[in-house]
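For the sake of transparency, this paper describes our internal protein records without simplification. Such a record has a labelled line for the sequence and another for the backbone structure tokens. Nothing more is needed to write down the fold, since each code stands for a local backbone conformation. For reference, a complete record is included directly beneath this paragraph.
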Amino acid sequence: MRLRTTSAMAGVSALVLLTGCGAADMTKQASPFANAEGARTVTLSVQSWVGAQANAAVAQYLLEQELGYRVDTVQIDEVPAWDALSQGRVDAILEDWGHPDQEQRYVEDKKTIAPGGDLGVTGHIGWFVPTYFAEKHPDITDWKNLNKYADQFRTAESGGKGQLMDGSPAYLTNDKALVKNLKLDFKVVFAGSEAAQITQIQQFAKERKPFLSYWYTPQWLSEKVPMTEVKLPEYEEGCDADPAKVACAYPHTPLQKYLNADFAKEGGDAADFLKKFRWTTEDQNEVSLMIAEQRMAPQEAAKKWVDGNESTWKAWLS
């Protein structure tokens, strides 16, 4: 989901499968199938948000059903995933929101990671309010007017300030710096995870209460709870270079894939397939919605999408 820069993305925890709820320190652990010589296996790093799960589910389904590979998935935070990819402990990251430090270190300098191409989806992080609130208070869409409404966004967690709801502390976020540097009467409050944040947003929406939230697109929830972006100071190249001094909006980021360099050269049909894997925001949201809202198992959602979109995925196999 989520630019998710700064080293704010570096939280790590124990290795889990995609169905788990955590991340992995892959410097110490790895899938037993990763980088196995002569084995038709692929290990995919999967971030914790549902869009990344949708990518991995469809890739896994096609790798297994059409190309005959065994696919292993591990959930791991963004920065540790780069370390794992460099070491060959995972073979591919299918959705990266931009990590220039890691790109310089591993792609340009060490050459242990190779670009895997554009995912086809453009990601954007921003601050959003429910559209029902923006329609009543149109000036809320300008950040300069946020303090005017701060009291309406107060919660028990934010104390005397308005609440700016963030998701996981592991996501890339400049929000604390933005609140400070823009002199806003708000406090960043972390829900803890994407799932917890979604639950809170749904509850606010059900009660038609105002909320201000760090949010990102594409994300399936936006189809269920219409939200309107609050315009922050315009993003310019380099305005977020110093995490402590950030006072600008988040950029729009074409999401990228990355492969372990050895796997990119020697991974055969699997590597070729992952390089060609490219779909639209609508495709990703369709699968994400099935997983998160309809509670379908990821592989069941992937099968349903594959069955209805042969003209799209056949090109990935050619």
Notes: The CA atoms of residues 38 and 120 lie 31 Å apart. DSSP finds twelve helices and nine strands in the chain. Confidence is low (pLDDT under 50) at residues 1-30. The beta strands are 41-46, 70-75, 92-96, 113-130, 162-166, 186-190, 212-217, 227-230, 252-260.
